[in-house]
């Protein structure tokens, strides 16, 4: 006769290395439970699960990171879809009047419109995503359960900051190197079909190509890369020492060197005290530190330059003594400040929405939207002061981040551990 009493217990080793007791004759889970476990695992893509299997990233961290990224991508897709619909509705008359081809509308404009505005408003999407899914976690008492195990608020911030770092790094790389290439086609499309500013030539252009060297050209055609009425003056101690003139000038686009020009019917006048030396010729190849793009400034030109090109352009224009470089300086510093805002707005969003409230997520979402739009407002106003009022570009661009860092630190300290 079989006796029923205390069942035998054996020790097993858990994932964390803790010895636990289990029943020797415990029943196996049924197939339904196994299917549910597999279904839960399949929600996270395999490539993402492999990337998140790091020692200092726990299962809870992976859960929050996947929630964060999923909500972020969904909010981008939703809001940008609405923005595209409104943009089509606003511009459809101009596009039909200008007879823009459908292929160019889709490929040149909207295929570059979507990544540009997604990256431009990336901090806003981060803020909305954090508040939305963190409020949902708090309403479901999941954050309370995490804190009941001894998890501090600082520890809770780890997966949020890891995700913010991924988004900030991606946003920086896209904004610095990838999106400007696509903006070339988008800006050209806007100037041709929407703004109808297809400028093919410029007249009476004067610029300083290097310290003490001033170039002048009467007319230059951007399509043929050639012009006429060219002169080049060199000054030393505010005195003219050389004067070059040429009937025609053409930029050599096939040359391996930059700034390679071909002059036709030229003459050079060299001044040495009271003496003058004259020389002339039919043709001459020379290096002049200027390019056809330097003769004309197009609207939003700073958006079409990568980060190294933007830095080089600003430095070159400063050496020439140009006065219209404020938009380029603002754009340069904005490409660093905007990705950094992901950390600030993530901290504010978590601090606002990690507590369970009676009114649900409505209050947190409303406060979050107000703060996010105020951030964009501050960013626009400060950039305007830098361009029109002569404020230092670096300080103007970073003012919104400095203000919101103070707000983030205040809310962080007010949040209970």
Commentary on this structure:
The protein has 417 residues and is an alpha+beta fold. 56% of the residues lie in helices and 19% in strands. It has 11 helices and 8 strands. The chain has helices at residues 31-42, 46-51, 59-97, 102-120, 122-139, 142-148, 153-194, 307-320, 326-353, 362-388, 393-414, and strands at residues 9-13, 19-23, 201-210, 213-221, 226-236, 239-251, 260-272, 275-287. Strands 3-4-5-6-7-8 form a 6-stranded antiparallel sheet, with no helix packed on it. Strands 1-2 form a two-stranded antiparallel ribbon. Mean pLDDT is 82; it is low at 1-42.
What does the secondary structure layout of this molecule look like, with pairings?
Elements lengths: L8 E5 L5 E5 L7 H12 L3 H6 L7 H39 L4 H19 L1 H18 L2 H7 L4 H42 L6 E10 L2 E9 L4 E11 L2 E13 L8 E13 L2 E13 L19 H14 L5 H28 L8 H27 L4 H22 L3
Antiparallel strand pairs: 1-2, 3-4, 4-5, 5-6, 6-7, 7-8
Helix pairs in contact: 3-4, 3-5, 3-7, 4-7, 5-9, 5-10, 7-9, 8-9, 9-10, 9-11, 10-11
